[in-house]
Design goal:
heterodimer; A: 322 residues; mainly alpha; MetI-like fold; two-stranded antiparallel sheet; B: 271 residues; 11 helices; 73% helix; globular
Chain lengths: 322, 271
């Protein structure tokens, strides 16, 4: 009661007395200065991500300007562009070109396989079916990455289910003919680029379906009908109406498939030939070779490629579909 | 009312979509068959016989248990860190507009937008520059960093639906900040946090690319599996572990979906 009698003139009657105790004082202070609370809330996450993540990225960039002493194997901490120059050796350019080609074909193939699923889910599935479709894409997306690769090791092995299936269908000659082709073939599917390609498509496919479906949901159904009413064949409708409207979604999905393929080193290591991809080059350079500067320079390559890719994607309006 | 209600899909589209879904699911189902095969030297199909003995063999393997225990401890602590950081960040970003807000969203998403190998090699070179030795905590450092985004995405979606006037009402009625958080904010965001936390746990539990750069000689379960993938030594044990991992990750995903299914931007749509 003492508070109200003392502050009879200063406090308006509708306002509660000032809160007491540490908690109350703090609450009042934050309520009066929301900026202060905001700052305190942002501080821990920004510090964590800023120091650990952005700091590490800078460390990476810094390392890529160091070089390795070829005789002692020690890292020479002086600014040089020599390590970046090493990237342009024929062997290293090969690695970069191989990875980019793989990323591009994987992206195209995922778009082709993803489209029917995304289109069906967006336009025809309703209610229960829609939820089911959603889960059918989510579960493979979230199942263990290594287990998915392991499953394909089982499937693609010479004694595995795929060879068995080809034998049952009397198509072994076809498999053998494919495997005897120069670049895409090999001793068995599990040690060929074809195998690497299939597994990449499999593992990244859900990342293509989800944004594609989001974009297709936004295409009004009556536009498709109008196109058909005006005499377009389904093929024409697809090319001139559906595809242009769905393109931002496809580009958004391709950001994932492209970027993930560029940076992956486990799939080509487990299923594929001994020829390296960028990710493997990074891994072996920092591990067995102990050449962290070259590994860092290699890691900058996907960052630059993705930077260009994102810039182009932004111009095509892909970010509205994310 | 949308004009396309009750339409029937063309047959070609149905077939293509079914094949796509089959392609997505058949490989995972195959794992379940292989866990029971009697063949131990190759990946022979069809399995020559079926047995359940490998479950007992796997159960008695100390290396599997050690890897599992390390993975669970790392995932638990990373999830806890990510929950705190992700929620704070989501609360700040959703309750007000301020300078640099877009930058902060980008900062949170970046660790998962850039390929894992970049996060990995970046952390590896930072540890090398600062002479930090590999330990349990270097793994946690990496995992927590990319888990923040999962919690953040779920929490931000929920905060957007929660009206700010509820907080004002609570304060008007005399609750202090702690009480308001405990009785008004937390009940509103609890399921979103639970979903985000479970997804973060699943993400950390399964992570291998960043871990290979931050673990040194330690073995998490994914690293144990990776060694088996590159140099297969005990195929039957690997088959069983693979099957168990599929089952263990399935449950949190389904539960997280169930928790956030109505209205929210559904959990996990951006891994």
């Amino acid at each position: 009661m003492s508070v109200s009698t003392v502050s009879q003139y200063s406090a308006a009657p509708a306002i509660l007395p000032a809160a007491s105790g540490m908690r109350g004082v703090l609450s009042d202070a934050f309520w009066r200065r929301p900026k202060l609370l905001l700052l305190l809330m942002l501080l821990p996450p920004v510090l964590w991500l800023g120091i650990i993540y952005i700091g590490s990225l800078f460390a990476l960039l810094l390392q890529s300007f160091f070089s390795i002493d070829e005789f002692s194997g020690l890292i020479n901490r002086e600014f040089t562009l020599k390590t970046y120059g090493d990237l342009f050796q024929a062997a290293n350019l090969d690695i970069i070109l191989r990875t980019v080609t793989m990323a591009a074909t994987v992206t195209l193939a995922s778009a082709v396989i993803a489209f029917p699923i995304a289109y069906y889910a967006a336009r025809y599935a309703r209610g229960r079916w829609k939820a089911l479709f959603y889960l059918a894409v989510m579960l493979p997306l979230w199942s263990s990455y290594l287990v998915k690769i392991y499953a394909w090791k089982l499937i693609l092995a010479k004694e595995g289910i795929l060879t068995w299936l080809f034998a049952k269908l009397n198509l072994l000659w076809l498999l053998d003919a494919w495997l005897s082709l120069p670049v895409v073939g090999g001793n068995s599917l599990s040690v060929s680029f074809t195998g690497t390609f299939i597994v990449f498509v499999y593992v990244w496919l859900p990342f293509m379906i989800l944004p594609m479906q989001a974009a297709l949901e936004r295409v009004p159904g009556n536009l498709i009908e109008a196109s058909a009413d005006l005499g377009a064949s389904p093929g024409q409708t697809f090319r001139n109406v559906l595809l242009p409207l769905a393109l931002p979604g496809i580009v958004a999905g391709s950001i994932f498939t492209f970027s993930l393929t560029l940076g992956d080193y486990i799939i080509p290591q487990v299923i594929g030939t001994s020829r390296l991809f960028i990710g493997q080059a990074v891994y072996t350079q920092q591990g067995t070779a102990g050449n962290i500067p070259l590994a860092a320079a290699f890691a900058v390559v996907p960052i630059v490629i993705m930077g260009l890719y994102l810039w182009m994607a932004k111009r095509m309006g892909a970010f509205d579909a994310l | 009312m949308r004009s396309d209600h009750g339409q029937i899909a063309p047959l070609g589209l149905k077939i293509a979509a079914s094949f796509g879904l089959l392609f997505l699911h058949a490989p995972i189902l195959l794992i379940f068959v292989y866990a029971f095969t009697t063949e131990e030297k190759s990946y022979q199909w069809p399995p020559p016989g079926l047995t359940a003995q490998w479950f007992a063999v796997t159960w008695n393997r100390p290396d599997v248990w050690e890897a599992l225990s390390l993975s669970v401890r790392v995932a638990a602590i990373s999830t806890a860190v990510a929950l705190v950081l992700g929620t704070l960040c989501a609360a700040a970003v959703s309750r007000s507009k301020f300078f640099g807000r877009e930058t902060i969203s980008l900062l949170v998403i970046l660790p998962i937008a850039l390929p894992g190998i970049i996060t990995g090699i970046a952390l590896r070179s930072a540890f090398a520059l600062t002479d930090i030795p590999f330990s349990f905590w270097t793994i946690v450092l990496g995992h927590a960093t990319f888990c923040v985004v999962v919690v953040y995405n779920n929490a931000v979606a929920r905060f957007r639906r929660t009206s700010g006037s509820m907080i004002e009402a609570s304060m008007d009625l005399g609750a202090d900040g702690v009480q308001t958080f405990r009785y008004v904010v937390l009940p509103n965001i609890a399921t979103a946090l639970l979903a985000g936390g479970m997804l973060a746990f699943a993400l950390s539990f399964d992570e291998v690319i960043v871990t290979t750069f931050t673990a040194g000689q330690q073995q998490t379960l994914p690293i144990w599996m990776l060694e088996e993938l590159i140099r297969p030594r005990q195929r039957p044990v690997t088959n069983v572990v693979a099957m168990v991992v599929v089952l263990v990750t399935l449950l949190p995903i389904l539960f997280a979906y169930y928790l956030t299914r109505d209205g929210d931007q559904i959990a996990g749509s951006g891994k």
